[in-house]
Amino acid sequence: MENSDKENKYYRAKERVEAIKKFYLNLGSYLIFIMFLAAINYFTNKWQYAWFLWAAFGWGIGLVFQAVKVFGLNPFLGKNWEEKKIKEFMREDEPQNRWK
To answer: Is 84 a residue whose pLDDT tops 70?
Structure first.
């Protein structure tokens, strides 16, 4: 039982590390691509209309949602809300041995 618990913790930690790594790769791609679009925008119309900001805003919203998911920054449900709910539901599923 103890070995299985260690394996589960390891796999959860590994999944979390992979999610964080994916977030930072997406953040790097975002920065590089938005700078590229800003350069194109500058050289085509000298900032007369900053159209690259639309792409930055749209992709930025996606990054914010990914950061909330990866880092658990949910202001509405609080920190570790999901884990607490899972444990609560697991306790409810346990057989009730009140008369023993």
So the answer is: yes
